[in-house]
Amino acid sequence: MVEKKQYNGLDVVKVLLAVAVAARHMIQIFYPVESKWRLLIGAWLSNLAVPVFFIIAGFFLFRKVEENDKEGGKKAVLSYCGRILRLYFLWSVFYLPIDYLNWYHGQDKNIGTAVIYYIQSFLFSSTTVQLWYLPALMTACFMVWLGYRKGLKVWHLTMIGGVLFFVGCIGDNWYFNQQLPKGVYQFLMGYVRYFMTMRNGVFYGCFFVALGFWFARTKKQFPFLPMVIGFVMSMGLMLYEVIHCSSTNMVFSSAPAAFFLFAAASQVQIKNRKLYPRLRRMSEWIYLSHVYFFHLYVWTARWNPFPPTKKGITISILVPMMLFSWCMAYLSECQHFQWVKKLI
């Protein structure tokens, strides 16, 4: 029996990027406006995470689709989308106490307004800062698969996704959308009023999931060193963009940076160990649970031995988060805690 290939380099990349996302949200809340880390992590490094996550998800999903091509991969895609939808419902429930506290301590105490806003956020964005990725991933995977099922080639899907990503980058960033013609800008504002954001599966996810599909389909071998050089150059371009164009969410140059990083990491040959699947699960726990550790820090601040400095806050939040995620990933490997796997 041929051993299934493990992509351990991708597991390492995933956990590092998940920590970057958690650090981004922590910095946005707890660090002063003038902090350099708002730029370096909050707007630069962390914006690489979601594109890479989309590519990885598309890569592994559409490898299954290719293996089941006689059925068009329908079972694999619907099963995957169903799992993502269940996770979104589950973690939205987990965050209900936080949603309630945010509403209770907010200025607008109108229950009707809060319920309408919650429903709108749940459907078109998310009720918690990081959970938007789940419905975006589900939407993107389904749209790319549907296009494939209808006869579109992978390069068609990538091109269409690229156009949507371009439109999303323009619409998401005030630096660009302020330069749009008045009629187009008003249309954009009308869209945002109802759909809230362009950082979703349509304008953000489709392109990168389609790239993952392309990686799953292509038989090309990407030489490691040129991919690393391309990644470094793309990250330099990305830094220039976030500085000069104030891109903080959807960044044009994240596309080549994510492409080169995935291509390089997928070629890394590391001996298989239990560590790497554990890191993969750990990355998912970090991404989904990290907002709770912000609140835990606030709730326990009076007993915290660390001073409320940037270093003290970072240690107080990230260390418990990492330990918790490691423990949950480890528990999921134990026979009596297999149910833990269903939470991520």
Rg over CA atoms, rounded to whole Å, is 20 Å
Structure class: mainly alpha
Stretches with pLDDT under 50, minimum 5 residues: none
N-to-C order of helices and strands: HHHHHHHHHHHHHHH
Helix residue percentage: over 70%
How would you sum up the major sheet? none
Based on CA inertia axes, which overall geometry fits? globular
The counted number of beta strands is: 0
How much of the residues is beta strand, in percent?
A: under 5%
What's the topology here?
Blueprint lengths: L7 H23 L6 H8 L4 H19 L6 H21 L1 H9 L6 H14 L8 H17 L4 H19 L1 H4 L4 H14 L5 H17 L6 H21 L9 H12 L9 H25 L10 H22 L13
Helix pairs in contact: 1-2, 1-3, 1-14, 1-15, 2-12, 3-4, 3-7, 3-11, 3-13, 4-7, 7-11, 8-11, 12-13, 14-15
What does this structure look like?
The two termini are 29 Å apart. This protein has 344 residues and is mainly alpha-helical. The chain is built from 15 helices and no strands.
